[in-house]
Amino acid sequence: MLTLNMNLNYQIDNYCLNISFLSLFISMICYWLVIAFPKKIFFLKFAHFEVSLANILLVYLLAYRWLKYSYFPLSNLYESLLFLSWSLTTIQLILEFKFKHKLIGAIASPISTLTLAFSSFFLPKYMQEVSPLIPALKSNWLLMHVSVILISYAMLLIGSLLSILFLLLSRNNKLNYTKNNNLTTASNSNDTLILKNEDKLNLLNTIDNLSYRIIGLGFPFLTIGIISGAVWANEAWGSYWSWDPKETWALITWIIFAIYLHTRINKSWQGKKSAIVAGFGFVVVWICYLGVNFLGKGLHSYGWFL
To answer: Has residue 24 been placed in a domain?
Structure first.
């Protein structure tokens, strides 16, 4: 009977994961179709439905593990990937509701889709199984520290991806735009480009502002996550900071986005220069979250691949 229940639970989890991935994949296609065909509002509504469905299923998967095993499911890489996928979809839905812009979904849906695909199809099965908590994780700080860090990663990833999109769309122009009658001029390295259609300028400004706002929201979460991690480390290991690879790269991530926010204050650095910093931050976040796990070194052993 116990084996039967375990198999049934595994099948339900597997179905939920597959449906979640399929929903996110469909939503990604729909968002891209909306970008290609702006008047087809049906695709946008269907994309919202699919993201919401995936979000609900991820809530079920996390809640089921929480209730069944009596601790919040953030004890290993697989569970953290599920939580990151949920964070990405939740933040996407909130931002879309607040800012009413389809670009957010077009940028966020590929990340959440790939994150969930990695957790479901690429991680070994033994890493997806539930195991007893190691002593260092038997703390109330588990929920506080890890959840806040992952939520910050979700915001920073979405915001920095928007900056990368900004760089791609503005790669032929500088952002020293001035208006002259009904035309918009942009300084180019060789000449002055006359933009008869102001839509591109408005789009660039929208992307730039969205990126700044989202990263501005994620940075305080990252700060709180690092501080709470230091307090927890002192309780668990007797030291606030040990220059563990994960700690070191978390600090590097914080510095990169602190530099980004500082560049936004300086007008000469706004636009492409600050977007380059944010784009670099996108890579650094993934190194901090996944890259250091390949090292197999440090105190954060529960996240290793090796």
So the answer is: no
pLDDT for 159 equals 94
User: Residue 178 — very low, low, confident or very high, per pLDDT cuts 50/70/90?
Assistant: very low
In a domain, 161, yes or no: yes
Q: Show the tokens assigned to 192.
A: 């002055």
Cβ-based neighbours of 134, under 8 Å, separated by 6 or more = 75, 301, 302
Q: Is residue 105 part of a domain?
A: no
Count of Cβ atoms closer than 10 Å to residue 220 Cβ: 12
Report yes or no: 246 and 292 within 8 Å, Cβ to Cβ: yes
Neighbours of 92 (CB within 10 A): 24
Predicted local distance difference test score (pLDDT) of residue 115: 94
Quick: pLDDT tens for 49-79.
999 999 999 999 999 888 887 888 888 888 8
**pLDDT on residue 184:** 35
Top-ranked range on mean pLDDT: pick from 101-105, 122-126, 199-203, 283-287: 283-287
Element (H, E) at 177: strand 177-180
Tell me whether residue 104 is in a domain: no
Number of domains present in the structure of the chain: 1
Domain assignment of residue 212, given as a range? 133-303
User: Which of 174-188, 192-206, 279-293 shows the lowest mean pLDDT across its residues?
Assistant: 174-188
CB 163 within 8 A of CB 275: yes
**Alpha-helical segments (H) within 141-198:** 141, 147-169
